[in-house]
Amino acid sequence: MASDRLRTLARHLKDQKNEVSPVAVTSTYAQSGDSIQYIKRNSLLSPEQVNFYNENGFLVIKKLVSDDKLDRYKQRFETICRGDVKVPGMTVMKDVSIKASEYVKGEKAINKIQELYTDPVLFEYCCLPEILEYVECFTGPNIKAMHSMLINKPPDPGTLTSRHPLHQDLYYFPFRPAEDVVGVWTAMEKIHRANGCLVVIPGSHKGKLLDHAYPDWEMGVNKAYHGIQEFDPNSPRVYLEMEKGDTVFFHPLLIHGSGSNKTKGFRKAISCHYASADCYFIDVKGTNQENVEQEIQEVIHKKYGSGVNVSYQDVWRVRSRLVRGEDIST
Ligand SMILES: O=C(O)CCC(=O)C(=O)O
Ligand SMILES: [Fe+2]
């Protein structure tokens, strides 16, 4: 519809002009004033929580997901790794250096599965009402699950390849505005410095999207784990040590990563990135996201054949799932 196109264009122009505007002025849910910038009007978060997120770009909610749900997801992950259930369409990532799987003899370790919507048990996590009521504070009422994964950080064999370089998730995303996007990450067990907890740079969500590339780590890094190239090594870091069920909500520009896993166990977390269904897609050609677009296109060509021509936006469009409210963009 012409009016839709106009609206998309207007938002696109605004976004280009002010890519990291801290105030989601286009949203009817945004509230002007000093204290609320990154969060929609809501009755769930306390003023302290709102201020904390605005200042730091993340918010941890203790014990949000119950142990029995997380145990069920862990069990399902094991079943998938063992090959007892086949999940068509799910992306299974093998680790760059870990030879031994925790479940299947003679198989490389699976460090991550993606596209949880392909499995009804794991996708339940993305639809949990206890999570979505928080997500709504960031995205507004129409919510799409854009990207989901279960991360199984293996014990590091001394190569430091289990680290996740510091990055901003928005780098991977061709949709905007950033203020209508939120990452959600739940510890499936106690996660601390020793097994590679998340590390964040508080307040970095107020900056812009920085250049990313593969880090020049001696022993390599996992596929698509790009990191920020230049940043101040003295930036204060906060290590998010979390109990099982604790859940962090974070802004897509927040600089974060995770350390190596110095324990013998595989460290598990489950995560989903959500966006408002009103978000619009951008063309990343000519921007500092072009290299990741290219890499993901290469993965698609390898998986489905070089003749398959799908735009980067469509890659994301087809993987998104409406989990609450309505999709008024189509
Ligand atoms: O779990 C990790 O180690 C990193 C996860 C991450 O970067 C994310 O969920 O965006
Ligand atoms: Fe991330």
UniProtKB/TrEMBL annotation:
| Gene Ontology CC entries for this record | peroxisome
Keywords of the record, alphabetical order, are: Dioxygenase, Iron, Metal-binding, Oxidoreductase, Vitamin C
The protein's name is phytanoyl-CoA dioxygenase
EC no.?
A: 1.14.11.18
**Cofactors:** Fe cation; L-ascorbate
Q: In which pathway does it act?
A: Lipid metabolism; fatty acid metabolism
Q: Which SUPFAM superfamilies match?
A: Clavaminate synthase-like
Record has Oxidoreductase as a keyword: yes
What phylogenetic lineage does the species belong to? Eukaryota, Metazoa, Echinodermata, Eleutherozoa, Echinozoa
Family (UniProt): Belongs to the PhyH family.
Question: Which Gene Ontology molecular-function terms are recorded?
Answer: L-ascorbic acid binding; metal ion binding; phytanoyl-CoA dioxygenase activity
One Pfam match, given by its short name, reads PhyH
According to its UniProt entry, this protein's organism is Holothuria leucospilota
**Lineage top rank: taxon:** Eukaryota
Q: Which GO BP terms, alphabetically?
A: fatty acid alpha-oxidation
